[in-house]
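Our working data are protein records whose layout never changes between entries. An example says more than a description, so a record of this kind follows.
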Amino acid sequence: MSSLSIAGHEIRRLLRDRALPVLLGLLVVLAAYAAWNGSAWVGQREAAIGLINAEEQDARDRSRGFVGKAPSVLPRVQPVLPPGAMAALSIGQAEAYPYTADVVALGDRTQLLRHVWSDIGNPAVQAAGRFDLAFVIVFLLPLVILATTFDLWSRERERGITALVLSQPIAAGRLIAVKASARGAIVLLPALAIILAVAAGSGATSPSGLAVLALIVLAYGSFWLALAMLIGCFARRTTEAAIAAGALWLLIVVMAPSLVLAAVNLMVPPPSQMQLATRLKAQLADTARQQQLRHAAEPPATRSPRIADAVRAAYADLLQADQAITPLIAAHTEAEDARRRALDRARLLLPSVAVQDALDRLAGSDADRALAFQQQVLAYWQARRQLHKDYLDRDVPQTLAEYDALPRFEFQETAGALQRGVLIDLAALAVATFLLLIASWSMRRRLATP
């Protein structure tokens, strides 16, 4: 009995099963709805960004009339984080971080992102996540694979034909590997085609992004096929195999991520945003009182008739306030980074979380991209501050030409489709799959057990 004949038998057997068309049809419907949902979300985000850009341009036009009447006219700017090329694939953490900022050159650093968080929406939706293609891949694709591969060997055991099948000139390990590969091909390849088609239809048309998406789906599907092989080595009855498959899906996809998150929260608790806000408010109030006392004690000085000294004093006060709150913000950021590093390490132990992370990174809805946006906003705000200082130092107000040449904010992408984070996720998934294959190979002798 050759491997080709075994594979052909398994394919014919699976194609005769009426459940396969139903499963694939259900996957088409759910994937299409998920893709539409992701595309609608992208459309809403782009419409909101369009309104923000229009508002910013209006403020820029209105502020032009004040040029020359003050040392500098730096109108309010609202930088935006545009959706990525594959954004419809996974909404991910995009709603957990602000996609726009409020940059006022002479404003408080703490106000950059405070008043521009994304819409709160339904708390239940925020907690569970939206129904997007990433949800279909992470949660539903394993169910389709397990539903067609959980009985790789249990059916032969129930019929009492294990000895007859193993009497053929083929090794037991090779036999179950061929059976799993044949069933996987007839299920995973159509599922991959469905996912790629609906992803492209939703607007995620980046060739490199679709190629990486295919790689992620194949790697994740291979993990569940390897798990089905391991189940086949142990389960002696079809019902046992079905229960084991369902329990393992529940453990790997649902329970383990929640338990690991709870453990990380215990070991590295998230820093309190409310506590930070209270400390910042108290520090700024104390700094303002000290500045008032100093100004009351110091006699007014006159440096130049062009730009009033009060303007320079106000700028110096702003710098002093920034320096006073910098240690508080740095400590809070360090605590957040420590927790994020713990979560990044934990994801490598959980295949479902690693795949979700890879899809988020591919879609541009991951935390790293959002944090890169915040860092670029901070740098842009600091550059606006420096422009104001330059006008004060030269003691000449801003001109219309300089106003018209003010730099605009444009987000700079920091990673491509096949970025380092995606490669790490795929490597973690490959290691998990390899360990399952080793376990299955070591248990191959159990296949002869009736």
